[in-house]
Design a protein that fits this description.
This protein has 727 residues and is α+β, with helices and mostly antiparallel strands. It has 16 helices and 28 strands. It is globular.
Length: 727
């Protein structure tokens, strides 16, 4: 139950703000949500659960506090559906009767200043009836989704194998750690004229996907399209963390603004952001691989379990990509991949660069190392023997017909690597590891067909052109390459092309800025629209002119969502990473000294930006492999501050050398493929393999913290002394 507020609490405060007044403040240039000057805006705060699971008995408001100074929003104030619109309707915008994880939002506060907000927050008391929480996937009883991919007869192939190698791998949580925390500013407005309907809202936020937020706001507020406007503020990185979670922030800001009848800014501090937002899915992956004595790959039997946390979010599609990539970039006649994602009473996990592929490819690449050790052959020899080539089929039965570059990137990386040198310091050992990965560009299977992303290119006046797309700039260079693509297709100078702001009242829905689809899919639509516009101008049509293009799936792509058979992606990007490490056997510290990565990007639209994407993703992967560990107790993150959650700094970064390999894809603009996620896939297994080659110790998990490395060294030393070391 919610105890009633004192009668002095107002339902509305002040005056409303017209939609365009709010929109005009940010549609110009780069502004962060926390930097926007919004006269009269109040500050918002989220009151969250302090237990992992239980019923909400009562919410009490201290009568000693003057509640007329603030606005309070509970689930009872939600005019539409109390749900965050996504894949499933399981996550409430505000918990009403029960909580399923620590930090779950229960109620919202807004006040004219932060001091008053702090006072109000301390005057709220929530009484719970705690329940037993499920905190580990091994104990989970609820499954979000399952996937099975089969090819050939795995059981028969394993029975006929000369050697069967089985290993279990564990991958941990990871925080996206974008530059500015989650935040949004909501501006309420009221309809005008005869028959004016309920008030609408404009939300400005740090986000990747304006139309995700737009749909979520419509559903929760019960508003039609025209009464909801979402505008992206300048966003300093997303890495998936600004994909689905901003919908919740925007809903909260909008609820407060509508009740307060004035703008409300809801900006998380870094502690709240780390404690409450989605992370990379942790998981356990088990491989059984059957081979002949000569190294021929006969069978792969793979099981994946991912922890989705307390609500579904994007877990089914994360699991989908993890499963499709689980066999690695290798041709195998017999494959069985059984994948499931389970629910626990931990904060929900969601999108993160790579979207499930880094987890499954980590296991796939280390499995190559284990098999090579069992057979007594170099792992490079197995990769050359197993790698997919033109004409081969993947685990889903997709026949690869073009832009297949496993061999190209492997040889390019090996050529660029410097001669390996061993350490002269007795307690410091050096090692080198290699990984070979691929990553599907675009949405899986029929995803792009269902999205039907749309863009527009306009000639506003003679010699002036504008691109309209919902794809956002989050530091990856979208704005630059879109203008490059359009200018090249139009045959005009780059400075003649501009981009409209990512404002849902102005631009069509071109789909989310995710899944390595922006350059290849959306860029391709821009190229086609600009090409048509050029042709119309050449036929003497006069501006203003507008051309729209909507994605149409090629007839050559066939996918069955039920059986997971067919063409999982239009094309794959490929990468090979070589990592050199130093391991201090006294302290367990791992220092990655050198990283070489060769990446097939199809065609680099902007080579400098492409290299920047690869270097940034590679360093993010090095952090996941070595130091980015999230510790949990009773369903709460323990190291939820930057003082305790470590990421690589400039001093920790290895020397990174990037080689761009261009093997064009006919379906991308000028041959381009997506590479935003690919750099996250390869470094972690290469680093762990390098640790093994340096020390002889196996560490089948990330991150390789000093404590874990020392334990692996102890086990390896014990095995050597007792003659029990085995892969």
């Amino acid at each position: 139950m919610i105890l009633p507020l004192p009668s002095s609490v107002p339902t509305t405060v002040g005056r409303s703000v017209p939609r365009r007044e709010g929109a005009e403040k940010v549609t110009g240039r780069a502004r962060y949500t926390d930097d926007l000057v919004v006269p009269g805006a109040w500050y918002g705060r989220t009151i969250r659960s302090t237990i992992a699971r239980g019923a909400i008995r009562a919410i009490a408001f201290d009568p000693a506090f003057d509640w007329s100074r603030v606005v309070v929003v509970t689930a009872a104030d939600i005019p539409g559906d109390n749900v965050v619109q996504l894949i499933r309707d399981d996550q409430p915008a505000l918990a009403q009767h029960e909580v399923r994880h620590q930090e779950e939002p229960i109620l919202l506060l807004a006040a004219p200043d932060r001091a008053t907000l702090d006072e109000a927050a301390h005057a709220v008391r929530i009484d719970y009836a705690p329940a037993a929480a499920v905190l580990a996937p091994e104990s989970a009883t609820e499954t979000y989704t399952t996937i099975e991919i089969t090819k050939g007869d795995v059981d028969a192939a394993l029975r006929g194998a000369d050697a069967v190698v089985e290993r279990t791998f564990r991958v941990g949580l990871q925080e996206q750690l974008y530059i500015e925390p989650q935040g949004a500013i909501a501006f309420p407005y009221r309809g005008s004229g005869p028959g004016a309907r309920a008030s609408g809202v404009t939300v400005i936020g740090s986000l990747q996907c304006p139309y995700y937020v737009h749909r979520a706001l419509k559903r929760c507020l019960g508003l039609p399209d025209a009464q909801v406007v979402v505008i992206q503020a300048e966003t300093g990185g997303g890495f998936g963390g600004k994909e689905e979670y901003p919908s919740l922030v925007a809903i909260h800001a909008a609820l407060l603004a509508r009740k307060a009848a004035r703008p409300v800014r809801l900006i998380y501090d870094r502690h709240e952001d780390l404690a409450a937002t989605t992370k990379r899915h942790p998981g356990v992956i088990t491989h059984r691989t059957g081979v002949r004595r000569d190294g021929t790959l006969l069978a792969q039997d793979i099981e994946i379990v991912l922890d989705g946390g307390a609500y579904c979010t994007l877990t089914p599609v994360v699991l989908s990509r993890a499963a499709i990539h689980a066999a690695g970039p290798y041709g195998c006649p017999n494959v069985r991949i059984r994948a499931r994602a389970v629910a626990t009473n931990t904060p929900p996990n969601g999108a993160f660069r790579g979207f499930g592929a880094p987890q499954s490819l980590f296991a796939a690449e280390l499995m190559v190392e284990h098999v090579a050790e069992r057979l007594g052959v170099p792992s490079l020899d197995l990769r050359r023997k197993w790698m997919l080539r033109v004409g081969d089929t993947t685990a889903t039965g997709q026949r690869l017909t073009e832009s297949v570059s496993a061999e190209l990137v492997l040889e390019a990386a090996l050529k660029a690597a410097t001669p390996f040198q061993r350490s002269n310091v007795p307690e410091v050992r050096r090692g080198r590891g290699v990984s070979l990965v691929f990553h599907g560009s675009g949405f899986t299977g029929s995803g792009e067909k269902k999205l039907a992303g749309t863009v527009a290119v306009e000639c506003t006046r003679e010699g002036e052109f504008r691109i309209l797309t919902a794809s956002t700039e989050i530091g990856q260079g979208t704005n630059t390459i879109f203008c490059q693509i359009a200018a090249a297709a139009l045959g005009v100078r780059l400075e003649q092309v501009t981009l409209a702001p990512q404002d849902t009242s102005l631009v069509p829905d071109s789909g989310p800025t995710v899944a390595s689809r922006t350059a290849m899919i959306v860029g391709g639509l821009i190229h086609d629209a600009a090409s048509e516009l050029r042709d119309r101008l050449r036929k003497a049509e006069r501006p203003p002119l507008r051309v729209e293009r909507t994605y149409v799936q090629p007839d050559t792509i066939h996918w069955d969502d039920q059986t997971y058979r067919g063409d999982a992606y239009p094309v794959y990007a490929w990468a090979c990473t070589i990592a050199d490490v130093e391991v201090d056997t006294d302290t367990g510290e791992v220092h990655v000294t050198d990283l070489v990565t060769a990446v097939d990007c199809g065609k680099a639209i902007h080579p400098v930006m492409a290299e920047g994407q690869i270097e940034g993703g590679s360093l993010q992967a090095v952090g996941w492999a070595t130091i980015e560990e999230i510790k949990m107790r009773d369903g709460r993150y323990l190291n939820d501050r930057l003082a305790t959650y470590l990421i690589p700094t400039a001093l920790d970064a290895p020397r990174i050398r990037t080689i761009l390999v261009e093997n064009p894809y006919s379906g991308g603009p000028f041959g381009a493929k997506g590479i935003g996620e690919l750099p996250m896939d390869g470094p972690a297994p290469a680093v762990i393999a390098a640790i093994h080659h340096a020390t002889g110790a196996w560490l089948d998990e990330v991150p390789a913290t000093p404590e874990k490395v020392l334990e692996a060294l102890r086990i390896a030393d014990f095995g050597l002394r007792n003659g029990t070391v085995s892969s």
